[in-house]
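Troubleshooting log. The previous structure file for this entry was overwritten by mistake, so regenerating from the original sequence record. Sequence copied from the archived sheet and checked twice against the printout by T.R.
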Amino acid sequence: MKRHVLIIACLAAIPGALLLRPSGDLAPHQVAGPVTALSGSASAQDFRPLPFHAMAKRVGQRYRGRLIGADITHPTPRERELGAALIYEFRIITPQQNLLKIRMDARDGRFLEIAGRGQTKALRKGGAMKNTDKYRDAN
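Regenerated output below.
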């Protein structure tokens, strides 16, 4: 029962978190409350982030290592240009003791950024996306 209440409270906090600045303060003209619009034409009622645990599982399927941290955060300007409204950020320690920071779009599960040393060694066989990353050829 307590677990369900915690999950509901976390999900209810997501729209309010979208109004916060990176410093955690509200902008002077903003009041915490329901979000009426997100990037693009999607409304707050249409916004359905993928389950956090499912995204963590995808990270584990792609990279070897131990998950040491996870967070929900704001997109960077570049990520916002790609259509991301909410970011899941994961931190893993690879078997070679390197730290990887992985940022994913909460809406569709795209890997937006992987930062850190030892990415290639930590990548599982078959973990790389084969010609399915529509943004790879855009650069």
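The chain has a mean pLDDT of 74. Archived copy saved in two places this time.
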